[in-house]
Specification:
This is Cell division ATP-binding protein FtsE. By secondary structure, this protein is α/β, with parallel strands linked by helices. It is about 30% helix and about 25% strand. The termini are far apart. The mean pLDDT is about 90. The structure holds adenosine-5'-triphosphate (ATP).
């Protein structure tokens, strides 16, 4: 068994760019396997740009990032799909195929990531649906599900390949507060089972309720509540 304490994410001296424009300078932090970390900051402060860099949607031009065993400063385009199997990515807007059932949406991802055995595919889909509390949704079409249920399916999809870290960009942003609470609890359960979570949020309530570590994008820097005095205030 692997008892290594190697962080799942390590960022050193990285600059986060949008095109030619630097958005965050000299970014340094790491995330351990058991951690739940909030990413905050005003609109336009660089949260999404940081997350996009971490899943290799934006190139890392300066500095070093190791995530789920991949070094982004030297990753090749053909390796990016393999990296994305090791990290789960969840956005605010559910991007399910609207013309396919839940089962077909999930099977598509497994097949695209190399799964071939139909029995194993079926079993894995049942497992992740059970994990997100939606076993009965298997044959439903996305439009037959509520917003919160669709987001649960998106989370199930992100879990299919047992990622070591989930990157979530405002995953509760479009949901009613009660539904958002349920989704947040689901993230906490997933975290307790050993998946690190880095979640961008504007939700003050969550930050006040849950004393997780906070990374804050502010004036081109990334502040870390483990190192800096990070104010939540009204500035995010
Ligand atoms: N596709 C893009 N092309 C060029 N510039 C962009 C692009 N997306 C974002 N930016 C710019 O990069 C900077 C950081 O934006 P980013 O989307 O990372 O902020 P954010 O903190 O995620 O904001 P929000 O809370 O509104 O999602 C902003 O100045 C923004 O205008």
């Amino acid at each position: 068994m692997d008892f290594s304490t190697q962080p799942v994410l390590q960022v050193s001296q990285a600059t986060i760019f949008q095109g030619e424009n630097p958005v965050l300078l000299d970014v340094n932090f790491s995330v351990e396997q058991h951690e739940f970390v909030f990413l905050i900051g005003r609109t336009g402060s660089g949260k999404s740009s940081l997350l996009k860099t971490l899943y290799a949607d934006l190139p890392l031009k300066t500095g070093r990032v190791e995530i789920a065993g991949y070094h982004l400063e030297k990753i090749k385009t053909k390796e990016v799909p393999y990296l994305r199997r090791k990290i789960g990515i969840i956005f605010q807007d559910f991007q399910l195929f609207t013309d396919r059932s839940v089962q077909e949406n999930l099977a598509f991802v497994l097949k695209a990531t190399g799964w071939k055995d139909n029995v194993q595919i079926k079993n894995r889909i049942s497992e992740v649906l059970l994990q997100v509390g939606l076993a009965e949704a298997l044959t439903k079409m996305p439009h037959q599900l509520s917003g919160g249920e669709q987001q649960r399916i998106v989370i199930a999809r992100a879990l299919l390949n047992n990622p070591s870290i989930l990157l979530a960009d405002e995953p509760t942003g479009n949901l009613d507060p009660d539904v958002a609470d349920g989704i947040f609890k689901l993230f906490q359960e997933i975290n307790k089972q050993g998946t690190a979570i880095l979640m961008a949020t504007h939700n003050h309530e969550l930050l006040r309720k849950f004393p997780y570590r906070v990374l804050k994008c502010e004036k081109g820097k990334l502040l870390d509540s483990q190192v800096h005095d990070v104010s939540f205030g009204s500035s995010f």
